[in-house]
Design goal:
With 334 residues, the protein is of the alpha/beta class. 25% of the residues lie in helices and 22% in strands. The strands form 5 sheets. Strands 4-1-5-7-8-9-12-13 form an 8-stranded mixed sheet, with helices on both faces. The protein has a 4-stranded parallel sheet with strand order 15-16-17-18, with helices on both faces. The chain has a two-stranded antiparallel ribbon with strand order 2-3. 46% of the residues are buried.
């Protein structure tokens, strides 16, 4: 029987109400005990590095979760991280960059309703996550939620209340889970997937937390870039449409880049991605080597990848090389 480590971090799935609102209290073992037949899938281990609302999840916590996985990697066949849904996509993306090319699956899941709720989605999500983590074909970091497995760099929370909270951004779901059957989609994801070799993953230990997402709004003042210089090393700029940037921001943006800071350009439109070369209002930024293009990546993945890249190097050429490297399906190759 496969061995799966459940890493409980809190979130709605572990929450109960004391009259002042939901707060995480249940342990991973207590949650698994509520799920029928889960012990028939795998031999389970448990660890609880934290028990927090995912609103309070920070990059230092991503590193703690990474450490738990790395320290236990030789002893388990797969890992399930129980996590709040609000920042799950950020954590899934971060783990994709911190633990690369993992032949063992690292699955994140949670629920929209607490395990104690009579109408919870927690039982099925936890059951199917262990099922996916124990499967021979599963690998790398993914989110399993509401019957779908999504690459860890492509998950995005689309709904605040419905059980099908997550969607896969600009990339197909890796698999669909129907009761206890995994239906995989596409070449390389099923029986033709590369066999496991026993190779260890590539692990990284550093992140630069000084990364900000700035969403363009009409009449955004150029002075914002000067104000941000004290606290941030990188800005991820969510442009209008396919890559529209107002003319009033031109000098401020190039001043930011010329100061040695990083600028990543993406779009605030959720689907289909960025192309700066289409309109005149974006073309001025398309060929500047100091401006990184997010293409069809999710904002969550861009945040985590920028933190990871700047945690490894500040050399501009190496920053570009790492940023444009495809990792765990995070971008459609150019």
């Amino acid at each position: 029987m496969k061995r799966v480590l459940i890493i409980a971090t809190g979130g709605t799935i572990a929450s109960t109400s004391d009259g002042a609102g939901l707060a995480p209290t249940a342990t991973g073992r207590e949650l698994a005990d509520k799920v029928p037949l889960i012990d028939t899938i795998a031999e389970l281990g448990f660890v609880q590095p934290m028990n927090i609302d995912s609103t309070n999840m920070r990059p230092r916590d991503w590193l703690r979760i990474k450490d738990v996985i790395v320290e236990s990697y030789a002893d388990y066949d797969g890992f399930v991280v129980l996590h709040g849904t609000d920042t799950m996509a950020y954590t899934a993306a971060a783990l994709s960059y911190l633990i690369q090319d993992s032949e063992k699956p690292i699955v994140l899941t949670g629920s929209q309703q607490p395990m104690a709720s009579p109408f919870t989605d927690a039982k099925l999500n936890l059951y199917q996550s262990v099922l996916y983590a124990a499967d021979d074909v599963s690998r790398d970091v993914s989110v399993v939620f509401s019957g779908k497995a999504i690459a860890g760099t492509r998950a995005h929370k689309q709904r605040t209340m419905s059980f099908n909270a997550f969607m896969s951004m600009n990339y197909p779901s890796l698999a669909y889970i129907r009761n206890d059957r995994i239906v995989r989609a596409g070449a390389g994801m099923g029986a033709d997937a590369a066999p496991r070799t026993g190779a260890a993953p590539t692990v990284f230990d550093a992140l630069d937390e000084r990364v900000l997402v700035l969403k363009l709004t009409p009449e955004l003042q150029p002075s914002i870039f000067e104000l941000l210089k004290r606290d941030y090393d990188a800005v991820i700029l969510e442009t209008f449409g396919i890559g529209g940037i107002p003319d009033t921001l031109h000098d401020a943006i190039f001043g930011w880049v010329d100061s040695g800071r990083t600028l990543v350009v993406t779009t605030q439109v959720p689907e289909e991605g960025l192309d700066l070369g289409v309109y005149e209002v974006g073309r001025a930024y398309a060929e500047n080597p100091g401006i990184l293009k997010g293409d069809d990546m999710s904002t969550e993945a861009l945040v985590a990848k920028t933190m990871w890249v700047l945690g490894q190097t500040r050399d501009p050429e190496n920053v570009r090389k790492l940023f444009y490297r495809e990792i765990n399906h995070d971008r459609t190759p150019r």
